[in-house]
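Box 4.2: Ligand-aware structure prediction
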Amino acid sequence: MKLTKPDYFDRFHCLAGGCPDSCCQEWEVQVDPDSASRYRKLPGPLGNDLRRVLRDEDGETYITISDGRCPMWRLDGLCRIQAELGEAALCKTCREFPRLTHDYGDFVELGLELSCPEAARLILNESAGYITETVPGIGAAEYDRDAMEVLKSTRVKALELLKDSSRTVGQTLALLLLYGCQAQGELDGAESVPFDMAAALETARELAQPGDIGEIISFFQSLEILTDGWDTRLRSPAPSDWDRRTLALARYFVNRYWLQAVSDYDLYSRVKFLVIACLLLRTLGGDFVETAQLFSKEIENDADNMDALLDAAYEHPAFTDAKLLGMLL
Ligand code: SF4
């Protein structure tokens, strides 16, 4: 079976006590059923404390945070479960974070989550290459093969487009938006045709209308906000020029989300999502890696926020193609 991962994947090391924004704060950790069952049966003080903080909601189990942090996070920065029972006793979320696995049955893709500061540094500061290796195991394809073929080939083209340094960041993202539209057409059954960048840029300029970044910020303020830091950023944006690392951010989104459209045939809202994210980051300003990491923590790691943004990409008047192009160009 083929396994693909970014070349920095195996270089990731958790910063532990040195982490500037630990994953043990502000998040409610979702606990997998096996770990929840084990924690509930544990004897002694640790078992008593875990039973007190485990909470069931909508068929899932969570560790309830208190004072903005996981109650299992010790003052010395270590996890109490790991310290007392060993790493194997951690629930799946904590054991794997920030590693991502996309298992499509007959091939697997790995990645890191941008919401971890150390992963964000690797994702945004390196021109990542990808490694494909053969690993033991033969799985069956769990997807529509024709759709996956289109998604794989269009993703290659989208990534090539993002590597072209001959245009401004805004122009590149405008082209990506239009290419996403074309790729959605191919996914819907249209014939594959070459993407003429010069013509597409001309079309983008013709379509562009003034957008209002204030409307975008208002939309994000209407979502669930986890941290005071994000609330402050949204209240006091410090717009900056495009940071070239925005293209590394866009490549991360393309690698992470493009193939996921095989599940619902909706590629275009994912492309719009990444364009909106890049526009928001430029508007918020500040340290680029920090802002991107915070965005990911608030939006990518919150299923409700992600769903709301993907829906809004189609429906919200601030996110029409014309307005997005207007803000990009
Ligand atoms: S956010 Fe990343 S670096 Fe920080 S504690 Fe969690 S896994 Fe480690």
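In the box above, the bound molecule is iron/sulfur cluster. The mean pLDDT is 92.
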